[in-house]
Amino acid sequence: MIENMAKNFSEAGGSLILRQSVVRILTEDQQVTGVRLSDGRIVEAEIVVSNADVTRTYTQMLGEEVDRDYSQKWFSKKQYTPSLFVTYFATDREYPDLAHHSIVFGGRYEEMLRDIYEPNNELTDDFSLYLHAPKRSDNSRAPDGHEMFYVLSVVPNLKSDTNWEDIKVEYQTKILEELEDRGIIPDLFKHLEFAESFTPQDFETVLQSQHGAAFSLQPTLFQSGPFRPMNKSRKIQGLYFAGAGTQPGAGIPGVVASGIIAADLVLEDFPVVPEEPAVEQELKR
Q1: pLDDT in tens, 142-194
Q2: Integer Cα distance of 143 and 176 in angstroms
Q3: Is 70 exposed, middle or buried (0-12, 13-18, 19+ CB in 10 A)?
Q4: Most buried in the list 54, 104, 106, 140, measured by CB within 10 Å?
Q5: Can you tell me the distance from the alpha carbon of 157 to that of 265, in angstroms, rounded to the nearest whole number?
Q6: CATH homologous superfamily, domain 2-78+215-269
Q7: How far apart are CA 130 and CA 233, in angstroms?
């Protein structure tokens, strides 16, 4: 899939660099000049659209000399969403009666959310789960006679004192037992082939999300819409933003909309002048 994406991007005139991350957005006199990659390479550019966590972008990916739109202090006063505990697993049998998407509610859904959201940040003994069975729409996701799934539980972000390395296996087992005991996936452990989990710690280290938050800033009244970081820096020329932490907000529709907004802003500031066809150029001569 990635290879096809790279091929299509290349045919459109772009260049896709894989297996690298941006460690620094380079600037000179408040103007973007490029990015430095994790392998040390520098890619020169007058435009950077960051879809990284907006907090991390402003607080860690810019040089200390840069005048920012939002300071470390500004971000420190914000509230962040909870994180997720995501378990990927596979079985050696199929479950054709299972829906593509399933939501498994716990007994105290509203109270649980109050517990895990800031400022409480407490991991509860109970949980509600979302279960995804992708083979319902794409049979190639697992061989015949096998299934693959992922199940996620909403958990506190890393502002809590939960040590995920210590409880990762225990929490993963508890989730899988819930799916089996409630008859969602009968005889799960008998047919389990593989299971691995992605914790809030991974959200912070692998995805570089502030506090391991799964959806960046909370959509509270004064952190929503125009109160979220803008899609275009007012102080750093050539720097734009897309993603859950910027305007208009989190969720797939909001993130897609942020990409459209960022693209429109780039085209407004750097209009593309279409090249004339070779035939018309020749006629003008």
Answers
A1: 999 999 999 999 999 999 999 999 999 999 999 999 999 999 999 999 999 99
A2: 22
A3: middle
A4: 54
A5: 32
A6: FAD/NAD(P)-binding domain (3.50.50.60)
A7: 36
CA pair distance 22, 32, nearest whole angstrom: 14
Q: Which residue has the tokens 């389990």?
A: 192
Q: What are phi and psi of 193, to 5 degrees?
A: -100, -30
Identify the three-state secondary structure at position 77. coil
Token digits for 217? 């800033």
The model's pLDDT over 192-227, given as tens digits with 9 standing for 90+, comes to 999 999 999 999 999 999 999 999 999 999 999 999
End-to-end CA distance of the chain: 45
**Token code pair at residue 247:** 């305007």
CA distance 56 to 62: 9
Lowest mean pLDDT among 29-33, 34-38, 108-112: 108-112
